[in-house]
Amino acid sequence: MMITVYGKPDCIQCDRTVKALDRAGVDYQPRDVTQDPEAYRHVTETLGYRQVPVVVHQTDTGTEHWSGYQPARIKQLTTAGHRPDAATITAATTASTMTVR
Fold it and tell me: Where does the signal sequence lie (predicted)?
């Protein structure tokens, strides 16, 4: 199961989303739509969103996604078992700070 957070710099909802994921210990891959044209096209054309953050959650049965800061959905990810080991949490926190802020 993989989680990707599409965001951009100076985005309050993006910051809140990645901070909530970090606090919950949820493993995710950050993508900056302002620096990654492929990520931008995926969010806008494939998924149809016009705002970030967009959280995409790959599961064994398919893909779920949503836009905006949604604490209840983040909590669901926590209960779904997306907690990595300590080294992965540190790497994800560093990457999200550099990429999404």
Answer: none
pTM value is 0.77
The rounded distance, in Å, linking the Cα atoms of 28 and 56 is 9
Both tokens of residue 12? 């309050």
d(CA 63, CA 33): 20
Q: Are 82 and 92 in contact (CB under 8 A)?
A: no
Residue range 26-42, pLDDT digits in tens: 989 999 999 999 999 99
Dihedral Cα 19, 78, 13, 93, nearest 10 deg:
30
Under a CB-based contact definition with an 8 Å cutoff, are residues 22 and 89 in contact?
Answer: yes
